[in-house]
Amino acid sequence: MTALAGVDVLARRGELLAIIGPNGAGKSSLFNCINGVYHPQKGQVRFAGEDITGLPPHARASRGIARTFQNLALFNELSVLDNLMAARSHLMRRGAVSGMLWWGSTAREELAHREAVEKIIEFLDLEDARHSRVAQLPYGWRKRVEIGRALCMEPKLLLLDEPVAGMNQEETEDVARYLLDLKESRPHLTQILVEHNLGVVMDIADRVMVLDFGRIIADGKPEEVAQDPQVMAAYVGEQRSKQGGSLA
Fold first, then answer.
1. What is the pLDDT of residue 145?
2. What is the pTM of this model?
3. Is the pLDDT confidence value at 93 over 70?
4. In whole angstroms, what is the distance from residue 37 CA to residue 59 CA?
5. What was the pLDDT predicted at 101?
6. 125-168, pLDDT tens digit by residue?
7. Residues with Cβ within 8 Å of residue 63, at least 6 apart in sequence
8. What's the rounded Cα separation, in Å, for the pair 182 and 221?
9. What is the mean pLDDT of residues 52-79?
10. What is the rounded distance in angstroms from the CA atom of residue 27 to the CA atom of residue 68?
11. What's the rounded Cα separation, in Å, for the pair 211 and 22?
């Protein structure tokens, strides 16, 4: 089985690019290639002008690629604060011994990282859960913590794997607002969003790319993609697309 075939993706700096497609289209495989979980048999992954195809995930993270996961990958027994602080580890310059002593420059460094984390907590409205164990939080809050942990890595590229999956309408609208606020407050941050909620995609994406059976079948503005016959056929079947209508 070929998961991806000839997929050529260009994400522009500051863009919110949505990647959609039916189940099994290759969306998660594409994310895994970008952040280093998978290594493509052919082709290259380039980031900020550098060929990173052979780099492991942690090396890509240090270059500014952060990711959330469809299935939450948090430290459930740690607090929200500790989960977010853990995401700063690759930015910390002091060693383990000085960290245990916690004095001088080490203390100042940790306090600076704590200040950065507090800004993310405030941005995502997580103040009331700051010291709560993640396992005790409702699902929608944990999804926010997952986004917050990725943001605490100070990424240049943020990969969002179904960030509103399983959420109710109010939670979904909150996350959509956070992503739009990110676009406004961090104009150099590129966001690539994989999402099945087409309403969210059409509302917030600058550009939409559609995958089907591992190939790109459409790439353009949301309103253009929503009217594309190939896209409608992939989602709702050939017969319905012949009868008219759109995904919008």
1. 97
2. 0.88
3. no
4. 12
5. 54
6. 999 999 999 999 999 999 999 999 999 999 999 999 999 999 99
7. 47, 48, 50, 52, 55, 156
8. 20
9. 94
10. 14
11. 8
- Judged by phi (left if over 0) then psi (alpha if -120 to 50, else beta), residue 237 lies in left
Q: Tell me what the mean pLDDT of segment 4-28 comes to.
A: 93
- State the Cα–Cα distance between residues 115 and 148, nearest whole angstrom: 14
Residue 180 CB contacts under 8 Å (≥ 6 apart), including other chains: 204
Nearest 5°: phi and psi at 56? -75, 165
Per-residue pLDDT band for 99 (boundaries 50, 70, 90) equals: low
> Do residues 30 and 192 lie in contact, with contact meaning Cβ atoms separated by under 8 Å?
no
Spatial distance between the Cα atoms of 240 and 233, rounded to a whole number of angstroms: 7
Separation of alpha carbons 133 and 119, rounded Å: 19
Write out the two tokens for 97. Answer: 């011994």
Report how far residue 91's alpha carbon sits from residue 173's, in angstroms, rounded to the nearest whole number: 32
Question: String of b and e for 128-164 (b: at least 16 CB within 10 Å)?
Answer: ebeeeebeebeebbbbbbbbbbbbbbbbbbbbbbbbb
3-state DSSP call for residue 206?
coil
Burial group, residue 119, by CB count within 10 angstroms (0-12, 13-18, 19+): exposed
Question: Which of 205, 241, 164 lies closest to 19 in space, CA to CA?
Answer: 205
Q: Which domains does the chain have, with CATH numbers?
A: 1-64+155-248 (3.40.50.300), 75-152 (no CATH)
